[in-house]
Write a structure and sequence with these properties.
Blueprint (H helix, E strand, L loop, with lengths): L4 E12 L8 E12 L3 E5 L6 H8 L7 E6 L2 E2 L5 H11 E4 L11 H11 L4 H14 L15 H13 L5 E5 L7 H18 L2 E5 L3 H5 L3 E4 L1
Parallel strand pairs: 3-8, 3-9, 6-7, 7-8
Antiparallel strand pairs: 1-2, 1-4, 4-5
């Protein structure tokens, strides 16, 4: 782990108006977090505690009511929509509990597409996709569509897609929550290995306390 600060969140607050006009529903209340390159942090808490809301804010998929957020030293809340979109494409990778792979495309194509959207040539994107699939032990499945892959294989492709554009920040929302224990362990081991090798800063929401304890830090909601 390096000393490079990838993410800094200070005094993040998020609330929603009450449907009856009463007190707003507060989801986040003064949340602070720093993430460094190569660091893997677990986010643990019961359902409804605000884990997914936090990940969506940090991933620029949602806004905060107030607070500060910097990614790679940039004050992202002050940016316009186009610049925030560019940061989402280039600097942030997101992994969901359900893989959300495009069913009509192969494993290779699911990793190639986000790179081409970000401006890579097809050859560059294919080379990067193949490298990731080899690391994920899926190079023998490059032409298979998601329906022909097991649950663990689908999630490994989703990890490859999240890493396709070499993000600085990786956010994962229950990435092993939909897998059986043996497959979850396999996916987690590969995930940890790739994060360590690439030096990405990772924040992982999980209900699995045993997996959480194996990360660098645990944040309880």
């Amino acid at each position: 782990m390096s000393n490079q600060l990838v993410l800094s969140a200070k005094n993040l607050n998020k609330s929603y108006p009450a449907p009856d006009g009463g007190e707003p529903l507060k989801i986040l209340d003064g949340f602070d977090l720093e993430l460094k390159a190569g660091e893997i942090v677990a986010l643990v808490g019961p359902s409804g505690s605000g884990k997914s809301t936090l990940l969506h804010i940090l991933g620029l998929l949602d806004g905060a009511t107030s607070g500060e957020l910097q990614i790679n030293g940039r004050d992202v809340f002050s940016l316009n929509d186009k610049d925030r979109t560019n940061i989402r494409q280039q600097d942030i990778g997101f992994i969901y509990q359900f893989h959300h792979l495009l069913p009509e495309f192969s494993a290779m194509e699911n990793i190639v597409l986000p790179q081409m959207i970000a401006g890579k040539t097809k050859d560059e994107a294919c080379d990067r996709a193949l490298t990731l699939l080899r690391r994920l032990k899926l190079d023998h499945r490059i032409d298979n569509r998601p329906a022909k892959l097991s649950g663990g294989e689908q999630q490994r492709v989703a990890i490859g897609r999240a890493l396709a554009n070499k993000p600085k920040l990786l956010l994962a929302d229950e990435p092993t929550g939909n897998l059986d224990p043996e497959t979850a362990e396999e996916v987690f081991q590969l995930f940890m290995t790739i994060v360590r090798k690439t030096g990405v800063a990772a924040l992982i929401a999980t209900h699995n306390i045993e997996l959480a304890k194996r990360m660098d830090r645990v944040i309880f909601f």
